[in-house]
Structure formats: structure tokens, C-alpha cells
Automatic annotation (TrEMBL):
Protein name: Arylesterase
TM regions (residue ranges): 56-74
Annotated GO MF terms: phosphatidylcholine lysophospholipase activity
Originating species: Noviherbaspirillum pedocola
InterPro entries, sorted: Ester_Hydrolysis_Enzymes (IPR051532), Lipase_GDSL_AS (IPR008265), SGNH_hydro (IPR013830), SGNH_hydro_sf (IPR036514)
Length: 261
């Protein structure tokens, strides 16, 4: 049986191994270095990919949080304070027939959680509303105030400057606690005096622009032109007119209910 001497070198020609130890070592070092470099590059690329993946995940998470925050803001219950006179108090109507009650029903049907506080009093003026408002704001902390006052000032021929000052003060007080204000504009017939009538109707858009409030230009639009929609006193709308009054208010109120704080 033949034996192999320890010092004998065996050449595996199929692998084409050369006999130069130095050259083989050099190629081995280069090959090892190449493998190490490639491994390092692969690890670095994997790291960069992982960082990008985490970045995408964090951005997606932030977007989700923003959406959830917006949804919470929309779904949070709002308190709506209606400060008005007989037009909002439902004068001469059966209980539940006024536009404010219809507003509560529409809010429920639209799935908009809100508590409506109707602080309207028949015969009230801007002066009366101004005196009552601080207590109402402190008690209810409304998110939105619908201001429907001024008609009785005009019917009594009160000074326009006083009406303007009272309305401005009420708007500022509500905005001072962070409430959004929806001002309901009013008009009176020219038989009260053309100049007075023009000056009165101009108060509402003027204050809305000045104080940056939402505005319904004419609360009785679509009703004032139809005598059959008034009670026998020719001053107060009937139950049949109340849905029209709500429809005049709704397009301006709805954005305030759904807008972010």
C-alpha cells in the first residue's frame, strides 16, 4: 500500500491551483478582502433600507394620528348658544315648532353631536342681550354663539350707534372665550325711514367683516316676501316658515360645527 510523504505537494489540476504559495496567498487575501467589502456594503445597504422602512412607518403613523385627531375634533360634542328675541324664542308657536328645535332635530339626523341652548327671550333688545350674555357665557361655555338680536331695536327706533355698539360688544365677549359667532342679519321696511332702514341693515355685514364672524345676510329671506307666512300680527313667522328660517341658518352654521378648533 503506497503512502504519501508529508512533504509532498498534491496538484489538483481540475481546480487549476498554482504551485506558487505567495501568489495563492495574495489572491486569497484579495478574495477575502473583496468578500469583506461586499459584506460591509450589503450591511450598509440593509441598514439604509431599514432606516427608510422606519421612516415610512413613522410618516404613516403620524398621518394616522392626524386623521384620528381631526376625527375627534369633528366628533367632539359642541355647545351652541342661541341668543335672540321672539324670532328664535318661538313666539306664538306650539312647543317644538320653532326653528331652534328644528335645528336640534337636524343635528341629530346629521349625526353631529351638539347641545343647543336657546337663551332667546321675546321682546329682547341688543341692550338686554348684552346684559345677559356674561352669565350665559360663564354658565355654558359655548363653542358657537348664534346672535339673533336687533329687530326690536329697530322697531323701537333706537339709535343705530347704540345697537352697533351692543352687537359689537356681544361678539367680542363670545370670541373672548373662544366661541365662534354666527351673526343673523336683519332688515326693516323702508316705512321706518329709508336712511334708518339702510343704516340698520348695513350694521350686520359691517360687524361681520370687522369681527370676522360668519353671517346670514338676512335671517327672514324667503319669508319676509310672503305675507301668508306671518301670524296675524304681521311680525312673527308661522310654523310653516320655520323650516325656511333653519335653511337660511344651516349653510353658515354647518361649517362652524365641523371645522377644527
Amino acid at each position: 500500500m503506497a503512502s504519501v510523504a508529508p512533504a509532498c505537494r498534491v496538484k489538483f489540476t481540475s481546480l487549476k491551483m498554482v504551485s506558487s504559495p505567495a501568489a495563492s496567498a495574495t489572491r486569497l487575501v484579495r478574495w477575502t478582502t473583496s468578500i469583506a467589502a461586499e459584506g460591509k456594503a450589503t450591511l450598509m445597504q440593509a441598514g439604509r433600507n431599514r432606516i427608510r422602512q422606519w421612516g415610512v412607518m413613522w410618516r404613516a403613523l403620524l398621518c394616522l394620528l392626524c386623521v384620528l385627531g381631526a376625527a375627534n375634533a369633528y366628533s367632539a360634542s359642541k355647545t351652541v348658544l342661541v341668543l335672540g328675541d321672539s324670532l328664535s324664542a318661538g313666539y306664538g308657536l306650539t312647543t317644538g315648532a320653532g326653528w331652534v328645535t328644528l335645528l336640534e332635530k337636524r343635528l341629530a339626523s346629521e349625526g353631529l353631536p351638539a347641545q343647543v341652548i336657546n337663551a332667546s327671550i321675546s321682546g329682547d333688545t341688543t341692550s338686554g342681550g348684552r346684559s345677559r350674555l356674561p352669565t350665559l357665557l360663564k354658565k355654558y361655555h359655548p363653542d358657537i354663539m348664534i346672535l339673533e338680536l336687533g329687530a326690536n331695536d329697530a322697531l323701537r327706533g333706537l339709535a343705530l350707534a347704540s345697537t352697533e355698539d351692543n352687537l359689537r360688544s356681544m361678539i367680542a365677549s363670545a370670541q373672548g372665550i373662544g366661541a365662534r359667532v354666527l351673526l343673523l342679519g336683519m332688515q326693516i321696511p323702508p316705512n321706518y325711514g329709508a336712511d334708518y332702514a339702510r343704516g340698520f341693515s348695513a350694521l350686520f355685514p359691517k360687524l361681520a367683516t370687522e369681527r370676522k364672524t360668519a353671517l346670514v345676510p338676512f335671517f327672514l329671506e324667503g319669508v319676509a316676501q310672503r305675507p301668508e307666512l306671518f301670524q296675524s300680527d304681521r311680525l312673527h313667522p308661522t310654523a310653516a316658515a320655520q323650516p325656511t328660517l333653519l335653511d337660511n341658518v344651516w349653510p353658515k352654521l354647518h361649517p362652524l360645527l365641523t371645522r377644527n378648533p
